[in-house]
Amino acid sequence: MLGRVLFLVTLLSIPRLEAITFKDSDVVVFLGNTVIERAQKYGHLETSVTLAAGKKNLKFRNLGWSGDSVFGHARSYFGPPKDGIGRLKADLAELKPNVVIVCYGALAAFEGDKGLPEFIAGYEGLLNMIAETANPREIVLVSPPPAESLGDPMPDMTEHNQRLAQYSNAIAELAKKRKLSFADFYTAVGTGGKGLTDNGLHFHEKGYRVIAPKFTKALGLTPPNESQLESERGGKLRETIVAKNKLFFHRWRPANETYLRLFRKHEQGNNVKELPMFDPFIAEREKEIETFRQSISTVK
Fold first, then answer.
1. pLDDT at residue 261 in the model
2. Domain SGNH hydrolase-type esterase, which positions (predicted)?
3. Distance between CA 229 and CA 114 in Å, rounded?
4. How far apart are CA 198 and CA 218, in angstroms?
5. H-helix or E-strand containing 141?
């Protein structure tokens, strides 16, 4: 209880994110581990932010990678972590994002006190790389969401939520130190919800639908209203976002990566030239997204 009180008191001293600043035609990258990667499958987070951005025509790219860390462990495939960071660096250099929304800490929090210094040091390195590689206009650090206690036979996540609160606090302090925006996703979601995850950690479709407006609000934006989201056009917008995300996923994370870019590229590496062929299809989906966005803006 004391730790939770201290967490809240500390957060009071940290400037809140008034509103993320988007400009027309911005490329926005979502970066993080499981909570970010799984979001592309359902489209709720991106749909909510798309509509909350008003008249801005944005292009979103999801670079989330399940199980990833600030050191790029999961992205490294068969090599050392530096290979994962190298891959991410190449992705950012190609995408040239104007805004990067970063959400790490959910996995690292399992290490508790002993892992916190290493996590923050790694986060610093990651942020340095992002700034040097892409030089985005804005970087937003998002705290990890809380875990759920689903009852027997699932574990009680109260203690883990205390660790998540601790890591959220440290991320907020890091944002303050680097003069970056901080989005308090942990507090926005809250620890009282049940039935939003598959296992206490990973949100399912209903979970993302529930947390999407909370995520948007944590970014300092006004979430779209239910009539917009539940309209036929709102449904089509989300479906098109999901379709676009699927195309982009296959573009940057092809299933046969080993043959295209890694140690078996001598067999099929010539087919890597086909990856850019996804780009026109992605562009078509984005035109449809913009058409739906414009039409939905008239729904009250």
1. 63
2. 56-210
3. 43
4. 23
5. strand 138-142
**Phi-psi map region of 220: left, alpha, beta (phi>0 left; psi -120 to 50 alpha):** left
Q: How far apart are the first and last CA of the chain?
A: 43
* Among 9-23, 133-147, 178-192, 285-299, the least confident range: 9-23
Nearest to 71 by CA among 111, 43, 23, 41: 111
Distance from C-alpha of 220 to C-alpha of 140, rounded to nearest angstrom: 11
Is the omega angle on the peptide bond into residue 153 within 30 degrees of 0, that is, cis?
A: yes
CA atoms of 261 and 270, how far apart (whole Å):
9
pLDDT digits (tens, 9 = 90+) for 231-265: 999 999 999 999 999 999 999 988 877 655 665 66
Q: Which one has a higher pLDDT value, 95 or 193?
A: 95
Q: Is the pLDDT of residue 27 over 80?
A: yes
For residues 251 and 122, what is the distance between their CA atoms, to the nearest angstrom? 28
